[in-house]
Design brief:
The chain is mainly alpha-helical. It is 24% helix and 0% strand. The radius of gyration is 26 Å and the shape is flat.
């Protein structure tokens, strides 16, 4: 019994993997109104696009190798 449920869950999970359709609003609903200063409404793909400031690239390695830190005059012990 448990084996059948596991197989059914696996088949259901795998069946949803290949579904890729253009996004559309639900029937009876509309996309949000156009932002101020814009003539047309943004599409669903434009609304899902992440701005650079929201997710900046993290490909800059600050330190390539281990180095001793310079003396920091503001690194004081707690009182």
């Amino acid at each position: 019994m448990l084996r059948n449920v596991a197989i059914l869950a696996l088949v259901a999970a795998l069946s949803a993997c290949g579904v890729a359709r253009p996004l559309k609003p639900v029937a009876g609903k509309q996309l949000p109104v156009a932002p101020m200063g814009r003539e047309t409404r943004p599409t669903a793909d434009e609304l899902l696009k992440v701005e650079t400031q929201a997710a900046p690239a993290r490909n800059i390695e600050l330190r390539a190798k281990s180095e001793d830190r310079k003396d920091d005059p503001f690194d004081l012990p707690p009182k």
